[in-house]
Amino acid sequence: xxxxxxxxxxxxxxxxxLFMKGTPQFPMCGFSSRAAQMLREVGAPxxxxxxxxxxxxxxALPRYANWPTFPQLFLHGELLGGCDITLELKASGELQRLxxxxxxxxxxx
Length: 109
Description:
about 50% helix; alpha+beta; 4-stranded mixed sheet; Glutaredoxin; 2 iron, 2 sulfur cluster binding; Thioredoxin-like_sf
Protein backbone atom coordinates (compact mmCIF):
# COMPACT_ATOMS: atom_id res chain seq x y z
CA UNK A 1 0.00 0.00 0.00
CA UNK A 2 1.39 3.40 -0.96
CA UNK A 3 2.12 5.85 1.89
CA UNK A 4 -0.69 8.26 0.90
CA UNK A 5 -3.15 5.33 0.93
CA UNK A 6 -1.88 4.39 4.40
CA UNK A 7 -2.41 7.96 5.64
CA UNK A 8 -5.91 8.03 4.16
CA UNK A 9 -6.72 4.63 5.72
CA UNK A 10 -5.79 5.91 9.20
CA UNK A 11 -7.84 9.09 8.67
CA UNK A 12 -10.81 7.09 7.38
CA UNK A 13 -10.67 4.72 10.35
CA UNK A 14 -10.38 7.22 13.21
CA UNK A 15 -12.35 10.47 13.63
CA UNK A 16 -9.62 12.31 15.57
CA UNK A 17 -5.98 11.59 14.70
CA LEU A 18 -2.81 13.14 16.08
CA PHE A 19 0.30 12.47 14.02
CA MET A 20 3.06 13.15 16.53
CA LYS A 21 6.68 12.52 17.41
CA GLY A 22 6.56 9.74 19.98
CA THR A 23 3.44 8.53 21.73
CA PRO A 24 1.06 10.26 24.16
CA GLN A 25 2.72 8.28 26.98
CA PHE A 26 6.27 8.95 25.72
CA PRO A 27 6.30 12.07 23.53
CA MET A 28 9.59 12.81 21.79
CA CYS A 29 9.06 16.55 21.31
CA GLY A 30 7.56 19.32 23.39
CA PHE A 31 4.98 20.36 20.80
CA SER A 32 3.71 16.79 20.41
CA SER A 33 3.58 16.45 24.19
CA ARG A 34 1.54 19.65 24.57
CA ALA A 35 -0.91 18.70 21.80
CA ALA A 36 -1.54 15.25 23.28
CA GLN A 37 -1.92 16.74 26.77
CA MET A 38 -4.51 19.27 25.56
CA LEU A 39 -6.51 16.50 23.89
CA ARG A 40 -6.42 14.45 27.11
CA GLU A 41 -7.46 17.50 29.17
CA VAL A 42 -10.66 17.92 27.16
CA GLY A 43 -11.36 14.19 27.15
CA ALA A 44 -10.85 13.83 23.41
CA PRO A 45 -10.77 10.20 22.24
CA UNK A 46 -7.92 10.42 19.76
CA UNK A 47 -5.78 7.99 17.81
CA UNK A 48 -2.06 8.80 17.93
CA UNK A 49 0.43 7.88 15.21
CA UNK A 50 4.14 8.00 16.02
CA UNK A 51 5.77 9.39 12.87
CA UNK A 52 9.23 8.54 14.21
CA UNK A 53 8.46 4.83 13.73
CA UNK A 54 7.75 5.28 10.01
CA UNK A 55 10.26 7.44 8.10
CA UNK A 56 8.24 7.15 4.88
CA UNK A 57 5.11 8.44 6.62
CA UNK A 58 7.08 11.19 8.34
CA UNK A 59 8.44 12.37 4.97
CA ALA A 60 5.11 12.15 3.12
CA LEU A 61 2.69 13.65 5.65
CA PRO A 62 3.86 17.28 5.32
CA ARG A 63 3.13 17.09 1.57
CA TYR A 64 -0.15 15.21 2.09
CA ALA A 65 -1.42 17.75 4.63
CA ASN A 66 0.36 20.80 3.24
CA TRP A 67 1.60 21.42 6.79
CA PRO A 68 5.38 21.34 7.35
CA THR A 69 5.70 20.41 11.02
CA PHE A 70 4.53 17.93 13.64
CA PRO A 71 2.26 17.37 15.42
CA GLN A 72 -0.63 17.39 12.97
CA LEU A 73 -4.20 17.06 14.24
CA PHE A 74 -6.94 15.81 11.92
CA LEU A 75 -10.71 15.65 12.48
CA HIS A 76 -12.71 13.47 10.07
CA GLY A 77 -9.84 13.47 7.60
CA GLU A 78 -9.39 17.25 7.58
CA LEU A 79 -6.27 18.91 8.98
CA LEU A 80 -7.01 21.21 11.90
CA GLY A 81 -3.37 22.22 12.44
CA GLY A 82 -0.43 21.79 14.76
CA CYS A 83 0.30 22.56 18.39
CA ASP A 84 -0.43 26.30 18.19
CA ILE A 85 -3.79 25.72 16.50
CA THR A 86 -4.65 23.04 19.08
CA LEU A 87 -3.79 25.53 21.84
CA GLU A 88 -6.04 28.18 20.27
CA LEU A 89 -8.87 25.66 19.88
CA LYS A 90 -8.54 24.65 23.53
CA ALA A 91 -8.47 28.27 24.75
CA SER A 92 -11.64 29.08 22.80
CA GLY A 93 -13.49 25.96 23.98
CA GLU A 94 -13.66 24.69 20.41
CA LEU A 95 -11.40 21.69 21.12
CA GLN A 96 -13.91 20.42 23.68
CA ARG A 97 -16.74 20.73 21.12
CA LEU A 98 -14.69 18.97 18.45
CA UNK A 99 -13.85 16.17 20.90
CA UNK A 100 -17.55 15.69 21.63
CA UNK A 101 -18.31 15.66 17.90
CA UNK A 102 -15.66 12.99 17.32
CA UNK A 103 -17.13 10.95 20.19
CA UNK A 104 -20.71 11.29 18.91
CA UNK A 105 -19.73 10.22 15.43
CA UNK A 106 -18.20 7.14 17.01
CA UNK A 107 -15.26 4.84 16.52
CA UNK A 108 -12.33 6.82 17.88
CA UNK A 109 -9.63 4.49 19.12
